């Protein structure tokens, strides 16, 4: 087959209408690795002047053509067909169908990325379900109230984060198109939107069975100061843990009207350890840009030892959850789900590619299943306690 193709190449120089260039030759002419262009396209090689070179070039041509007798590999296929300057097509979001005046504010509140809202809801739901009476299901009214407030509170937290980070975000590839970094929303508009979302969430929080303005004020303070921590400490993920898991305190208080430290404290700590784990994985997406900009994170602090560190936090999270269940006298079903949740964390840590931003994001988002498993375990453990 290879010798026939070479013969076709010779003939194409004389009678192209009868012997068109075979596809394999056309492919090789443009292949950056297997390019044998001088042999196939330079007629002077066959002139009497260069006749002495014909034999060696003929053998070189055979060698090149013989490589095409086996299928072209995937990497070579990319080299052949890839366009160096080809633009990546962005997938449209449902936000793009909203009125243009609203789109920047919807992006500012991250309404198209609900995973952050789930992370806010889980600690509250865990705590409120734990606070239910033995053999009973939780008060779904409190769960519904918090579920309605969480998107607005999370949106406010994202807004104030982007307000403080707007100059940094301009220098980070993944964040430079955010509304305040790109100029689609002015800082003043961002602050107004922040206040509007806080007012909405506050009005909804007031509907909880037992409301505490002190707990809500602490919640707001942590959310507003979190963006500043990345300038001060590498343990910014730990501060985020304090912030996003404050719902564990609010959830118990909403049901009981008081706090029980033997249950609430280990539950709160387990959520903090879990947050450090998943947000460290998330922070590995921006580690190179963070170094250039001067932002700190546990991803930079842990470096090559990240998997060892997050394994320790996974063990701490599972351990404090087990202590919480013991102190709350949960039934055996909880520990079955806790074992499954442990497997989910182990899978994340073992398989995550910390050098791949896409894989880090996939593992980060997969934590919703950890939250669901723990919630199901607490619910069944309470019902069958």
Automatic annotation (TrEMBL):
CDD domains: PT_UbiA_COQ2 (cd13959). GO terms for biological process: isoprenoid biosynthetic process; ubiquinone biosynthetic process. Signal peptide: none annotated. Pfam families: UbiA. One of its GO terms (cellular component) is mitochondrial inner membrane. Its EC number is 2.5.1.39. It is found in: Membrane; Mitochondrion inner membrane. Pathway: Cofactor biosynthesis; ubiquinone biosynthesis; Secondary metabolite biosynthesis. It catalyses: an all-trans-polyprenyl diphosphate + 4-hydroxybenzoate = a 4-hydroxy-3-(all-trans-polyprenyl)benzoate + diphosphate. InterPro entries: HB_polyprenyltransferase-like, Prenyltransferase, UbiA_prenyltransferase, UbiA_sf. It comes from the Eukaryota. Catalyzes the prenylation of para-hydroxybenzoate (PHB) with an all-trans polyprenyl group. Mediates the second step in the final reaction sequence of coenzyme Q (CoQ) biosynthesis, which is the condensation of the polyisoprenoid side chain with PHB, generating the first membrane-bound Q intermediate. Belongs to the UbiA prenyltransferase family. This is 4-hydroxybenzoate polyprenyltransferase, mitochondrial. The lineage of its organism: Eukaryota, Viridiplantae, Streptophyta, Embryophyta, Tracheophyta.
